[in-house]
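Can you make up a polypeptide sequence alongside its tokenized fold?
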Amino acid sequence: MYLRMAVLMVVTLYTSRVVLQQLGVEDYGVYSVVGSVVAFFSSLRGMFSSATQRFLNYESGRGNTSKMRDVFSTSVIIHLCVAILFCILSEAIGIWFLEYKANIAPERMVAAHYVLQFSIVSAVITIMTIPYDAVIISREKMGVYAYMSIAEALLKLLSAYMLIIVKTDKLILYGVLQLLIAVIMRIANGVYCKHKFEESHFALCWDKSLMKEMFSIAGWNFFGNTSFAITNNGLNMLLNVFGGPVVNAARNIAYQVSAVLSHFVSNIAVVINPHSVKSYAAGDMKRVSDVFFFSSKVFFIIQLVLVVIVVFLTQPLLQLWLGEVPEYTVLFVHLVMYHSLVRAFHSPINTLFLASGKMRTYQITEGIVLAMPLLATYIGLKSGAPYSFAFVSMIFFELVNLCLIVALVHKVTSISITKYFINVILPSLICFGVASLFYVLNEGLKSEFWYSAICAMVCICTILLLMFFMGMSKNERYHIYKLLRIVK
């Protein structure tokens, strides 16, 4: 998984540089905003992915292979319905947005429409790949999952190279190439699963009870996913309306950085989540609680290390990566990094609710709170607030959301809020405070690159030691020692 992460990070960063250089800032911004129109409905695309993963892990924990086959077949039927609905909504809203709201130069409007169609088809194909990805992860074939991701990254690298050598409209060509990559990955996942796992052979299945359970979890999960998709991609559209493609390009680069770094945390989530759900299915609540506390701290400290590196060295890293750094990019990167710190606590909490199947109150809370930044940003930008206000509002409401969903954890799982604050939040705040002091020191001295790099490394060592000796329990330290082969 970490080999996957290293390859993805290098390839994604280099690919983004080449794509930005070949498309130019304007077309890169156009691709970003058109992609947001499709991603606006990504909650539909991910609506049943979590539910499928949850039920496969749950039945695997119970050792029920026959039920796993029913789950897979049911999920294929559901994802086909979701894909059709996704296509209809994306077509209707996407064309309306491009024609009447998007801030795109008239001479690039035809290309934008082509990209919209290619993006919609790519997303539909990706939706139909989700059940196969879920089978691979539930079977804990992390090596295969990693190799598939690496292959996809290398195909994207090849697509960036094609932009250099093929003389045609590069924006349209890039859309076509992304569609071809989606088709190739769908075929590869399907062929592998059908040859290796008996539950991945589709059979017409209409289990009303199972479908009702999956719809229940997926339906409530829809609220949270929709709010997050609407907020992120709706904000991108608002930035286009008020600021134009240049602001979209800066925002997209900031999220490219965030997406690359998120692989460090997502590797842990992919590995830990199946164990959490299987432990819950087996009724081992002590293990569920232990994994929840430990993974929350690990998610945060890894994210904080990444934030320190990026925030301390943003300008030189962006210049090395992109060459020409669009306006607003440095500030947007910083704000997105701060938002990712708060978001780091979210994944372990989400896994708890998925494992329990009690999603209603949790997702209604998220659905309401996480939609608020969109309204706040519209009012702010309409009143003349700077573009950075969009990111500040996201951070504020993410903090509000965290406080509310943590309060729900105790109600659903009986995990103590006091223990969560003492074991997770308090050591995380101490580490963040120390990192902030180092940042203020570094900014006050306005140092050269190498001094900033050394300052970042000293800061990282300090917060890692603090989390290890102050944040980790004796039992957690023991298991880390075993992992590092310090003890047997």
User: Anything to note?
Assistant: DSSP finds 19 helices and no strands in the chain.
